[in-house]
Amino acid sequence: MKTLAIIFLTLISFSGFAQKGKLSGKITSEGSTVAFANVYIKASDLGTTADKDGKFLLKNIPAGNHRIEISAIGFKKFSRDILINSGQSKTLNIELEKSSEELNEVLIVDTQTGLTRRTPYNVSSIDMQGIETKGNPNGMMGSLREVPGVYGAEFGQGIVKPFIRGLGFSRVVTIYQGNKLENHQWGADHGLGINDLGIKKVEVIKGPASVLYGSGALGGVLLTQDDEFYKESTKFSGNIGTTFNSVSTGIRTYASLGKSFENGIFIATDLAYENHADYKNGNGRLIGNSRFNTKTLRLHTGIEKENFQNKLSFSFNDQNLGIILDEEMEDSKSLATSRNDRDMQLPFQEVKDYLLSYNQTTQHENFETSLHLSHHSNNRKEVEQDFDLVDLGLQQNHSFYNARITFPNGKIKHSLGTQGSFVKTQNIKNSQEFLIPDAEIFENGIYYLASLDIDSWFFQGALRYDYRNVTADASSEELIADDFILPGNPENRKLTRTFNGFTGSIGATKKFNAKNQLKFNFSTGFRAPDLAELFSNGPHPGTSRFEKGNDQFGREQSLQADLSYTYRNNRFESTFSAFGSRVNNYIYFTATDETLPNENLEVWSYLQTDANLYGFEFELKHTWLDQQRLETKFSGAIVRAEDLKNDRNLSFIPPDNFNLEVGYFGLKDRSLYAFSKLRLVSDQNRAGLNEETTAGYTLLNLGVSKKFNLGNDQLETGITVYNALNKNYVDHMSILRAFNVSSPGRNFMLNLKYNF
């Protein structure tokens, strides 16, 4: 009896195994193999990834009818019904059809988080390689203004703060070389500290992205992507170029060089030197001490393999930035000297940045990984009274890490990540003034991101928890001697604050057909107050302000709804986006009625309120004529913002702005390009606290460029005229708007670039 039972169970086991089948095959396209395509059985957990030769094998498939689906970057999704019989081993060779549209959808926006263009987030991209914008005096931000919803707050030519949908300063995160920059968070009159050297393009995420990037991503994220041309060349290749700006008699010279070896190792370098005298406004007046100069060096090396990629990069940026005085427009107090005077004069900022970063990605059969490690050292000095004295100085060291693991197989794609920073800020010894205490910040966040692809729908959701610990320390001899007092005047002269909480997002992308797509997303964001907002208690050199913070601030918390619709056909593409955002505990900076009589300084304080922001953006693009030689683009953005507690307009909100662009590609090889851009900025009549209304203006930019083939090399030449009508204007977002300091006038920018 026992023997019969064993035989019976054995037969059942063999019967169960016999019901399972196998499916194998090879994936190709136009005679070439398609590597690492995703293969899965719909309505099941069965899935795999093809190998580098396009071969795949799926085991343990239940007998019956199934639908197999295959997807790969740059190809249309393949779907077919198949019948698997009991015990059958079936072979299915598959031909995929190439699709630029599919390539755009699955294109990676950010390697660290794994975001693709199909994400429900509102993402825009701008190419930084056009010679007509190379060497823009306002650096990277000079080009980013072309993105609807993006604006810049200027403090002269060399310092521009990014704004996205009305939120700026430390509410926008910049990812550079994989590092989350923290160096520009100190004060409104300090820039990003980077230029466009070696950057291929910038991806702009509009709206809260704190769930993926942590504190500061309340308004959005700027993601810079390096130009990695050297990975495609086994010989030394690169470029060298120079740019001349007439408005400041500024010259920028730059070069890039690199190569890849047969074993996959690559090396590369970028370097640039830039020097500007004071710029002229539209009335031909020199704006004193708007001069600046920068020196930049970047080094890269790494390995590029099929399943493993890494990159080690080092960047050095040295800036000397003149500080325009509040009284500049008073003739008797102007710091303007001779037209071509480039020597630094008092006051000025001296800023040095050192950034070392390591980025690594791997691809395995069932998972993918991403790792980033970096250390950033930022030394910032304000020199006002004497070239040998530092009036205000900070040394910041920032260690940052980001790690992610993704499981791409199956219907749901899972990603789990962690991200964190350790920031140490110290006042430079022997400084004359102290605005904030020494401090240490530790923060860490853990997030989960899931995406589900079902036919024409793509769903994405994320959840994150963050913890941030801030310790202010006023116990150094210098701070004691300066009588710097922390809130509450603790006996040990130290104060600790913590900020923690959850953020999340959920959204979907609906693709109705090849022409119509809809995105909608709900997301929360947060920002912990920075050191200046919490602990400021001192005079700010270069200004007439005594600044006070508030250590009782809670973290800013936002909730935003975003809707975006895109229509595209062969020649026309349009995008319309609308958003609404509520920001609780919104921090703003304002003058008080208090004055310190002994020092003749006006007291400025940080305060909190609740705010509503809403608006929309649009972009229309059309190509005309044969070979799509003529391009037209019309875009614009409108933002409204309300201070709810005080029933007034929020301060520092961009005016309505619109851009009209026409470009034409000439000659048979399209090597000639001519364009005109018209920027219309409306009156800003919705003045906030301590603001006055600002008149609108219209700027006309013109340009032409030509490429010459020299054997295997290429020479690019171009001339661009910014503010061609020589308009004299004051932008509402200028840091010096209250003192009527006008922006640059007409600028002839001459470019010469040799690619080899």
Describe this structure in words.
The strands form six sheets. The chain has a 22-stranded antiparallel barrel. Strands 1, 2, 5, 8 and 9 form a five-stranded mixed beta sheet that branches. A five-stranded mixed beta sheet has the order 12-18-19-16-17, with no helix packed on it. It starts with a helix and ends with a strand. It is mostly beta strands and about 750 residues long. The chain folds into three domains: about 20-95, Immunoglobulin-like, CATH 2.60.40; about 110-220, Ferric Hydroxamate Uptake Protein, Chain A, domain 1 (Beta Complex), CATH 2.170.130.10; about 220-755, Maltoporin, Chain A. It is globular, with a radius of gyration of 28 Å. Helices cover about 5% and strands about 55% of the residues. Strand 38 and strand 39 form a beta hairpin. It is built from six helices and 44 strands. Mean pLDDT is about 85; it is low at about 1-20.
Break the fold down into its secondary structure elements and pairings.
Blueprint: H1 2-18, E1 20-29, E2 32-33, E3 38-41, E4 47-49, E5 55-62, E6 64-71, E7 78-84, E8 89-91, E9 94-95, H2 100-106, E10 108-110, E11 115-116, E12 122-127, H3 139-144, E13 150-154, E14 160-164, E15 167-168, E16 172-176, E17 179-180, E18 199-206, H4 210-213, E19 220-226, E20 237-245, E21 250-260, E22 265-276, E23 292-304, E24 308-322, E25 348-363, E26 368-383, E27 392-407, E28 412-427, E29 438-454, E30 457-473, H5 477-481, E31 494-511, E32 516-527, H6 531-535, E33 537-540, E34 545-548, E35 556-568, E36 572-596, E37 601-624, E38 630-643, E39 648-649, E40 657-666, E41 672-681, E42 697-710, E43 713-722, E44 747-755
